[in-house]
Amino acid sequence: MLPLRRLTPPVHLLRAFSTVARFGGVSRAAEALHLTQSAVSKQVQELEKWVGVPLFERNRKRLTLSSAGERYEKSVRALLSQLESATLELITSSDGGGALHLSTLPTFGAKWLIPKLPDFQTRHPQVTLHFVPYVQGYDFGSPTLDCAILFGDGHWPNTRAHYLTGREVVLIAPRNPEQTIRTPADVAHCTRLRHVTVPQAWSRWSETYGVEDIDPLSGPQFDQFQTIIRAVQAGMGVALVPRCLVQDEINAGLVSEPLPQHSVLSDQGYWLCYPETRANLTPLQQFRDWLLAKVEAATEAEASLSAFPRPALAFPDLA
Predict the structure, then answer these.
(1) Which helix (H) or strand (E) is 165 found in, with range?
(2) In the chain, what are the domain boundaries?
(3) Residues 6+ apart with CB under 8 A from 294
(4) Domain 99-159+270-305 annotated CATH 3.40.190.10
(5) What is the reported pLDDT for 148?
(6) Do 169 and 178 contact (CB within 8 A), yes or no?
(7) Terminal CA-CA length for the chain
(8) Cα dihedral angle (212, 213, 215, 219), rounded to 10 degrees?
(9) Which terminal residue of the chain, N or C, has fewer Cβ atoms less than 10 Å from its own Cβ?
């Protein structure tokens, strides 16, 4: 029988193997692990010597898991997740303190989340928030990310998701628009600003309210809602924006909402998301419970003030 040490590879070798398998190559794995490519390659080779089985098939620069490697990687990935989860729970279980690494879309963070965070700091001073740069299509396998606020329909694999806000989309215009907007048909005569990830937003809005002669692909295009809102303030045109991102500007009179009864409900919104392996992390639980309580209070307040029914409308990829 082999000694116990022989059957238990070091964790750093297992992590290198799992990361290379996830990215399909040494280059991206080395970047994720903050190691050199040479170091990662040596760790994978050392693990293969340790187990005595080829884990990868090497075709030029591409590494493909062998049949044995595929079976082993599934088990290794699960074990690493369990180890990480247990360690995080142990570290944060004593006083509920610790760090929480999170990420959010820039506009949503600036307009909606950040103004609320002083209250979280007051209620949970033992938790330190660390913001990670936002990257589209997060891989929660990253050890540097505990949770993220994403935009979508709430369905991400191996992820828990809690809806926050963002489904209501409203028409905004400058305080003194060049064209008077009294009906949806008047929008056809305005310059319409567009978000790059929602190319069909205007066509869907116009179809919902029976507006003809709207070219959905005309008008200036932007990559962030914060920039679009500022462009509307500057008088560049009208735009469709999630209400949660622009309500403060409407209330302050910086932009107008000429047709409040003609907002629409998207089937997508902003969600707090985190992997199953982080679910027991105490700072995350505290942040989640606090954030959902904020959302519930705001939802109840909005419901009491709601005056107009809104038709449902799908706006995919509205980020």
Answers:
(1) strand 159-165
(2) 5-91, 99-159+270-305, 168-265
(3) 116, 119
(4) yes
(5) 94
(6) no
(7) 56
(8) -110
(9) N
